[in-house]
Amino acid sequence: MASQQANRLAAGGLIDRTTPLRFSFDGKTMTGYAGDTLASALVANGVKLVGRSFKYHRPRGILTAGSEEPNALVELRSGARREPNTRATTIELYDGLDALSQNRWPSLGFDVMAVNSLLSPIFVAGFYYKTFMWPAKFWEKIYEPAIRRAAGLGRPSGVADPDHYDKAWAHCDVLIVGSGPAGLAAALAAGRAGARVILAEEDSLVGGRLNSDGGEIDTIPAAEWADAALGELRSMRNVRVMTRTAVFGVYDGGTYGALERVNDHVPVPPKHQVRQRLWRIVAKRCILAAGATERPIVFPGNDTPGVMMASAVRTYIERFAAVPGKRLTLFTNNDDGWRTVESALQAGVEIAAVIDARKDVPARCKALAEDDGFALYSGNVTGVRGGKAGISHVDIGLANGRRTTVSADTLAMSGGWNPSVGLASHHRGRPKWQAEIAAFVPDGCPPGMTVAGAANGELSLGACLRSGHEAGASAAADCGHAGAKHTAPAATDESVAIAPLWHVEGKQKAFVDFQHDVTASDVALAQREGFESVEHLKRYTTLGMATDQGKTSNVTGLAIMAQLTGRSIPQTGTTIYRPPQVPVAIGAFAGHHRDENFHATRLTPSHHWAAERGAVFVDTGLWKRAQWYPQPGENDWLESVSREVLAVRNGVGFCDVSTLGKIDVMGKDAGVFLDRVYLNAFSSLGVGKARYGLMLREDGIVMDDGTTSRLAEDHYYLTTTTAKAGPVMQHLEFCRQVLWPELDVQITSCTDQWATFSIAGPKTRDLLREIVDPAEDLSNEGFPFMGVREVQLRGGMVARLFRISFSGEMAFEISVPARYGDALARNLMIAGKPFGVTPYGTEALGVMRIEKGHVAGPELNGTTTAADLGLGKMMSKKKDFVGRVMAGREALVAQDRQVVVGIKPLDKTRRLRSGAHIIPRGTMVGPETDQGYVTSVCYSPIVGQWIGLGLVERGRERIGEIVRAHDPLRDEDYEVEICNPCFYDPEGGRQRG
Amino acid sequence: MRIACPFCGERENGEFTYLGDAKPKRPFVAVIEDGKGAEGEQDAFYEYVYLRDNVAGEMSEYWYHGGGCRSWLVVKRNTLTHEILSVAAAPGTGAAVVDVAMAKAGTE
Amino acid sequence: MVDFVWNVRSPLQQAVMPGRAGAIVPFAGVKLAEIRDFDLVQIFARRGQREATAKAVKKHYGVDAPAPRQAVSAKGATLIWSGPDQLMALSARKPGTFRPVDALRESFEGIASLSDQSDGRCLIRMSGLQARAMLAKLTSVDLHDSVFPVGTAATTSIDHTAVNLWRSENSEDGSPVFNVLVFSSFADSIWHTIVDAAAEYGIEIETRSAASV
Ligand SMILES: [Zn+2]
């Protein structure tokens, strides 16, 4: 099997040759080893072409070996688990892995859309803004579908993700981002001092560049040192090492977002396990040790397969024992690039040539070329030859003006290193330019963060270790963990000398942003057209806007812009860095909260009883409420609801109303408090009585309504609507704690404490007499309308009974402790059996309140005053209350306000629709003739037609007037009569009877 | 963002609800006759209800620890940096006693 | 006339299925128990009655009232701090009582307001070696030993729903024990969320009477 892996070295690397893994890329089966990434396995198998580019569909190969990869994006897995735009460089190989290249049709080798490359003049910067402007109607039918087909990278699976995700919190003293030499040194220092440490590493291995760059630390090989460091860290109880965990954002208050790829490295997560977990890490201190990213040099043809970052070449050789080619060239402007030559030589790779752009190449490098007998050119790479099969030759422009060509299958390029400053800049900080390394470094950090190692521009191994150690020790000390002094791990400081080089001119396309196909000439065009600011450059050319967020391109792009405008790089500046630092799937942000877990659900005490009876449930806020109870033979909801309404109106029914908010208002000033909260009086309410109350917002608009009962001198029991229970509680706490702290009042929600049913209908008393202890007097005299008291129920139960009615019928509300709610529902069925008791749902409840003209949510809609609702007379004139003053404003007491009225179609067979606008007869429809709208509708089995409530201008003066209901949504227009909102028993005799 | 509730300790902002500028104080109403208070009360209430500062920088804000101890807090916060400078309990949290005379004086 | 039977039904009756759930492992990482049959009364000091309430608590329960963010065990009750000048008194239910506040009224008359929450909450106990890992998915509160030792209480949120969370004595295997009071109407939903969070560790589920713990 291993023989397939033509580019695999016989020894070395951090792979497990005893565990071969089969995988498939574009349908071709290959083999790699445990420890490989998909990218390293493709390198080992000699695969050069891995994808097509976004705009021009140019053939592309693997560019990097890390999460910054712009080219090697694949569709990973198949079916429902297919995940587009996955970076081959971060996919850990597993047996049976299945990946497809992207952005090609019909195949990677022969791609029809590559014609875009020929049409490239129209795909230049700003083409979105220029090309598809006119005619506008072409957009929907022609431009957009065509662009959508051609653009974009991978395809989503199109079906629900079968895997699970969750979210978790973690807390620590010191969070360390990155486990390279600086991160490990920091973790050791902070951990030894006794601080609670989290070391987050996006890779599956700790070590960072130590796994690729060799070297010695404390006189032992760096990889061995890293192993020992990891062992020590794992032995400390106060240190948590989190691999496969990428910190992607820095938020306020020392909160960091991180994504743990728990099971991305296996085909399917084990049962009960998540694929990915989103962490919110709360840390007192954070050490950013995220290293640096090597940047490409922009030269003609720099995107041809076979051109690879020098550090990536080194990683593939050292870590994965996979050689990207047989004849290597290096194009560098710095000393670090030369380390790739050393790696390649040790691996037995032939060096065709090194092209060093610097005027003065260090003697050490010259000596190396001489000793090993390869050509060293002072100059630039001016182009490459080759195509989708990879490069064949490298064209070189020499410093002396002459040209030459070398044959090679691999070109390693190194333009220097960009410290990973992203996370340090998430609070809008802008990095500063450091000329010695020709790169940006952090300039100030979010509170609590420090930067260590290469991320801070300290590029040598020795410097990384020292600054990591120092940062770790001082972060721990900041958290109160001084600990014993340790010395920093030691290593030599290798040279990192660099002479900046950004762009080599030429005729061929030279790419800045590989993923978004932005070339150097696009940057030049943006500059010519006036888009010189980096923020404009970004939007106009889309530079840095792909999923890689420009990790390999941003700095180069702005450096080229700086050259073009004659400004310095620091003057040109950077764009703003924002989370996420690495792509995060939406599924991870959603976590557990999807499908039936989208939000928490509240169930009423009779829920399971209602479910047994086949109730249809409706979501009202977080609650599930029984909407109606279908019976065999009923054809639709209207039949069921009408039956329930008539059963109540003619007999007796009951409905679970436990969802209403219930609040205990206690204390010696409870009455005064309620006087100030409600527009009507409550201190005057007698013990054992209930009263309907209306509360306003301070701006004079109605906030909520409900009945409030006085259970004792110093104890009121307040109810709210289902929807406003939370907001009212918050409002009352505000009144208590902020507005009137002098009042002795305590408030507590008791919504969930009580199971409450409304029992309504002329036979209500008959039912109650079955279940209430016979000693209790339920007559009008013994239990008058709006009376409240505790009663004994038969079988040994105590209940609160409230004589209040929402339906307009003789009615009581009965409350028992919630644990007896289920039993109460069942017992009401038994007690009511002789009277044909009928459970009813929220629909019937709604019908009956509309028939009675009672207002509810659609009328208490945040625009209506008490007077609008016909309740203006309730407003007390003897006391101050919330909203009193603002309710007196001119516009809120104007005569032409829209007020609640009843509405019924003249054609009794017509269905009235809520939302229909009220327009006078014989006028044109328009804003100036709009006089209101229909708020609530129902079919009333009592009236025998559809009826509704509406808010209509001067409505109360217009009872009997015929107007039009105009419904542009449903294209309906019909005549309706404005009528009294109370359609049923307007004298109220039934509820008092 | 994290807010250090004086009662609960530091908590994530998901437990809190924001109300806004804590500077406006509800005008004190002493006597009501025929539904009306003192002269000019509508102007005073208009200011209280509608005139809000929206500071780019440090400001005092009401936050409600509804996902915790249900206390109202006055949080001094820099709206540009989100830095929290101080957190204080509203005067009437818990069983706290407030000097009524002082409370009224502070609102006039 | 029939007589009526008043069966108790816990909001968790349908959700809680005693036995094993989640990953199949030799030792369940998380143990979940629904504790039933408890009385729960909120005691909320009246204005200016902070000290008087503390004294009344001491007199009634024989222990000092819990300091902020603390839960204390008294004879026959656990007192859990639940906000400024507020606490929850949790005790095993006395059979045949409908109004647990009656037994407290005399001690707290005019000093503190009492609200019966016995049916307003469900009590879920979580323990096991992975209980803390599971809770990290549910609460933003730091439950590390150094921050949340035995006896610590918090008012916080699970699934955007306010809860009381406190830590009681470690279980015999040395693993921490956390208790959470959740609103009854949310209990079914939150139970499922808890089970989902615990599934990967393997779960052992039981129901217990408050009198037996
Ligand atoms: Zn709090």
Describe the protein.
- The complex is a heterotrimer of chains A (993), B (108) and C (213).
- Chain A is an alpha+beta fold and 993 residues long.
- Helix content of chain A is 23%, strand content 28%.
- Among the domains of chain A are: 2-118, 2Fe-2S iron-sulphur cluster binding domain, sarcosine oxidase, alpha subunit, N-terminal domain (Ubiquitin-like (UB roll)), CATH 3.10.20.440; 165-292 and 420-478, FAD/NAD(P)-binding domain, CATH 3.50.50; 296-396 and 409-415, FAD/NAD(P)-binding domain (3-Layer(bba) Sandwich), CATH 3.50.50; 501-572, BFD-like [2Fe-2S]-binding domain (Arc Repressor Mutant, subunit A); 662-748, Alpha-Beta Plaits (2-Layer Sandwich); 895-992, Elongation Factor Tu (Ef-tu), domain 3 (Beta Barrel).
- In chain A, helix 5 (181-193) packs parallel to helix 7, helix 12 (520-528) packs across helix 13 and helix 12 (520-528) crosses helix 14 (554-565).
- Chain A is elongated.
- With 108 residues, chain B is an alpha+beta fold.
- Chain B has a single domain, classed as 2-Layer Sandwich (Folate-binding fold).
- A four-stranded antiparallel sheet of chain B has the order 3-4-5-6, with no helix packed on it. A two-stranded antiparallel ribbon of chain B has the order 1-2.
- Chain C has four helices and twelve strands, in the order βββαβββαββαβββαβ.
- Chain C has helices spanning 50-61, 102-108, 131-135, 184-198; strands at 19-21, 30-36, 38-45, 71-74, 77-83, 86-92, 112-116, 121-127, 153-158, 161-168, 177-183, 203-209.
- In chain C, the strands form two sheets. Chain C has a seven-stranded mixed sheet with strand order 1-12-2-8-11-10-9.
- The model of chain C has no long low-confidence stretch (mean pLDDT 96).
- Chains in contact: A-B, A-C, B-C.
- At the A-C interface, strand 8, strand 30, strand 38 and helix 22 of A face strand 7 and helix 4 of C.
- The complex binds zinc ion (ZN).
